[in-house]
Specification:
Chain A is mainly α and 203 residues long. Chain A has ten helices and no strands. Chain B has 326 residues and is of the alpha+beta class. In chain B, a hairpin with a 4-residue loop joins strand 14 and strand 15. The chains are: A mainly alpha (203), B alpha+beta (326).
């Protein structure tokens, strides 16, 4: 009972918080940041494939969201609204040349010359075969896959985040899944064992 | 919204990737707050900003810590700071030491994970029951909120679910939006009802039919009995929220962090608890709470708006609410 009631109130409180921030209670935005910073960080890390860039991106996204919060209306879930900002921010970042090089480094391991410990950590987000398969996806496809598979967004939420029709995204995700599956089969790589990952991999 | 089933659909991918739960955490709160505080000050030039006045002022914090109302009897080490008793002398409301959330336990993390999935599964306004294979032999419940933006819609939902309606006007304040949440079965008595047993049986049948490594089983459950009811009101720049928790014979424990003081004050002949909670110099909030014996309900009133109520104003509004709700 405690947990279910608490959870229910948390959802209420998020809406209250956002309303209060819109009304001028700036300091309450701290609670919004605390509520979303970890999932946004993981999303950005997967999108940008660089831990430090992800941390910087999360800060920028929260600042952008704050600047735009007056325009937020609860007809869409706040989380979807926030992820939409994050999505556009990450796409913009990835379009920069420097980050494109990092993508190459992460997803085309043959081109790596010397990886730092930080880069090693980034590389361990995925097995080499999965990283290679992801490298063959477009930015939009990778984004869709990350949001769907790792952030567990519904197609309705994805529709809001990406500004696309949810049914179309569902079909697209199905094609992406097949594409990835085919490439993994071609590589013949086994799934990670628990010990092979520096992080626990079970979802 | 479609139902999401992640358990196996993306195994090919997730088994080759680090899970989010295993990735390091960050805390950018201070950095973000510093940036927006500076930005807000600069941004006020020449235009009326929504960020205006409250930046340096103490304010109502209504985050996840806002309420720790425990509507069931559990084994807490209660320090009896304040009590409210009914006319039979039974304790209905009491303040207790803060409960330390055991967020790190594996069980709690797993439970939170299942709860999150059930929350995602639910459509707005939907009550969802879920069952976790290998855990307690019980159906758990969660609910996705559905804000009601007109008083007519609020009234209709309250009538449908047998809730006593909150008023449209409250001491010069007007209704803005409301919510009616379902009663969520959780007590031993609830678990003896035919409806609960039916739901549990259906969930267990799902589990038996196609477990195949899957642990979580869910279903939407029609509901027609209300639980918590709340309404937001405005008057100019002031905004307040009134929440009603029907107790159904239960008690209320109000969790007070160490050093936190609550006061019991008589308002309109009723004992009202006034609580100001300070999380830090910048983050604090206040609210008034009271027990209505006739309704066996516990009320909470707080302010949310651009302008903050003083303690006296909040208590005066509580007094008006008590009169209106009688």
């Amino acid at each position: 009972m405690l947990t279910s009631l608490h959870n229910q109130l948390e959802a209420t409180e998020l809406e209250r918080l956002v309303t209060a921030v819109q009304a001028g209670q700036t300091e309450l935005y701290a609670a919004v940041v605390q509520a979303f910073q970890q999932p946004l960080y993981h999303y950005c890390w997967r999108m940008l494939a660089n831990r430090q860039d992800a941390e910087d991106a999360v800060q920028d996204i929260f600042v952008k969201a704050y600047e735009a919060i007056a325009g937020y209306a609860p007809k869409v879930h706040f989380s979807a609204w926030l992820y939409r900002i994050a999505y556009h921010h990450c796409l913009n970042m990835l379009r920069r040349q420097r980050l494109q090089r990092q993508w190459l480094r992460l997803f085309r391991p043959n081109e790596i010359t010397a990886a730092s410990a930080e880069e090693e950590l980034d590389n361990r987000l995925y097995t080499p075969a999965l990283a290679a398969a992801l490298a063959n996806l477009s930015l939009e496809e990778r984004n869709l896959l990350i949001l769907r598979v790792f952030e567990e967004k519904s197609y309705a939420e994805l529709g809001v985040i990406m500004g696309k029709n949810p049914d179309a995204l569902k079909k697209r995700m199905s094609r992406i899944k097949q594409k990835i599956k085919q490439q993994l089969q071609n590589k013949g790589e086994e799934a990670w064992s628990e010990s092979a990952s520096i992080m626990n991999t079970t979802i | 919204m479609e139902r999401i089933r992640f358990d196996h659909e993306y195994d090919d991918i997730t088994s080759r990737a680090a899970a989010n739960g295993g990735l390091p955490a960050i805390d950018v709160t201070e950095a973000v707050m510093e940036r927006i505080s500076g930005g807000a000050a600069a941004g006020r030039k020449g235009r009326r900003s929504f960020m205006r006045p409250a930046m340096k002022r103490t304010t109502a914090f209504s985050g996840a810590l806002m309420l720790l109302l425990v509507l069931s009897v559990s084994a807490y080490a209660a320090s009896q700071y304040i009590e409210i008793r009914n006319s039979a002398g039974e304790i209905k409301v009491q303040t207790i030491d803060a409960i330390t959330p055991q967020t790190d336990s594996a069980d709690n993390k797993a439970y939170q994970n299942y709860l999150n999935k059930a929350q995602k599964f639910a459509k707005p306004g939907e009550l969802v029951a879920f069952y976790v294979l290998g855990k307690e032999d019980e159906a758990l419940y969660t609910y996705k909120e559905k804000p009601l933006g007109t008083y007519a819609a609020f009234k209709q939902e309250a009538n449908r679910t047998g809730a006593q309606l909150l008023p449209q006007k409250l001491s010069g304040y007007s209704f803005v939006s409301g919510k009616v949440a379902p009663y969520m079965p959780s007590t031993d008595a609830d678990k003896q009802t035919a409806a609960y047993k039916q739901v549990l049986s259906e969930l267990k049948a799902q589990a038996a039919a196609g477990a195949d490594g899957k642990k979580l089983f869910m279903k939407a459950v029609p509901w027609n009995k209300s639980g918590v009811l709340s309404a937001v009101y405005t008057k100019g720049d002031y905004k307040s929220e009134l929440t009603k928790n029907p107790l159904d014979g239960g008690n209320v424990y109000i969790s007070l962090p160490s050093g936190q003081n609550a006061e019991k004050i008589k308002v309109e002949g009723i004992e009202v608890i006034y609580n100001k909670r300070t999380i830090s110099e910048k983050y604090n909030y206040h609210y008034a709470q009271w027990y209505d014996e006739k309704q066996d309900a516990f009320y909470l009133l707080t302010d949310l708006g651009n302008k903050r109520l003083t303690k006296a104003e909040l208590l005066a509004l509580a007094g008006e609410s008590i009169k209106v709700l009688k």
